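Shipment paperwork, digital attachment
Item: protein structure file
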Amino acid sequence: MNEYDSNRILDLTKKINYNLTNKFNDTDCYILNTCHIREKATEKVYHDIGRLKKEFRNKKKPLVIIAGCVAQAEGDIILKKEKYIDAVVGPQSYHKINQIILNLEQDNSRLNHTEFEPIEKFDQLNLVKNNNSKVSSFVTIQEGCDKFCKFCVVPYTRGPEQSRSLIEITSEAKHLAKQGTKEIILLGQNVNAYSFGKHRLSDLLYALDDIKDLKRIRYTTSHPKDFTEDLIESHASCKKLMPLLHLPVQSGSTKILKRMNRGHTVEEYLEIIEKLKKKNPNLRFSSDFIIAYPDETELDFNKTISLMEKIKFVNSFSFIFSPRPGTPAANLNQIDFKIAKNRLLRFQSVANRIKKDYRNKLVGSPQNVLFENDAQKENTFFGRDEYFNSVIVHSKDDLTGKIKKVKISSCNHNTLFGEIIGDLKKTEYAA
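Attachment content:
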């Protein structure tokens, strides 16, 4: 979502004649778009500002703006602590970026824009075309979260759940498709909570399915509590919806899930998985895990390992519990770091083995690959298969934007390698 927001900030600032530069030491305005999910995010802000101050020590100071969730969570603190920063802009206020820059050009007053105004933001962004021309493009459909998991800072930095209209989203998707986008990835802090009028996420998926030039649809990130029957059905009926679902569970222990205020049990999570697999046997899953959450016992941890083994997530993102200031879990007693680190390593060992086994089984198989760009080596191209695996092939022809059938010849931990064995028929585009 931060990548999407950053691209939209670029679209906005072009209106006042600011353009992206790769020349760091020739910058007029420096915007650092931040995330506050992990503990080190704020440290990175001050590290980057220190680097900027060193670079411009004997030059005219650029405008310096901190945007995103760190700005939202710690705006006044940041302005007080670091005088080099001119403004902080929260994720629900970045549609005001042009006026903020123009004001800063006129006077030296330092600014804090961290109001929650998602509807105004959506309305303003609809007036500015999304000029992304990538083969795979992000589209935000929903922001904020009402779940209030005890470890999560999102409700405090992104605010309550708000959704864009189906018409606005499909209009943006059609515009992107005309510019060459073949795949849309729908974004939301709680994307399957999407609701606008009578429309839910499944309605949006079917609407996007009808866009002729669009070949693939994905969405992230979901919450098990909002996995409705109509959404489950869409995984069987929506032809362009890819068969990989990212569905964070966080823990394999119902006791810990209750401590987290996740609003679902392990049994309910498994029931959703089973329903989805019945609708579409080709579905595979990825997930997020918090290891060593306060009060997690060795038994609780082993249940998480068991869940990993049972579902065999093809990809997972796992972290030691990171207390975020202002969240209910921030004041809980943390598990000793050595124990936490040991559990993380053990969990990741199992996760990596499962991922390795899965990738090894793909060797020799044909996969449908959408090529996004060249891999910066002559006659080498990068793409992704239907399960979002990275694939590298050699070709004398430009494969960008094309879907090809590729036979996988080898793999490493992160990438599949293969050779083109044919084109896809129209009936196979959403196979």
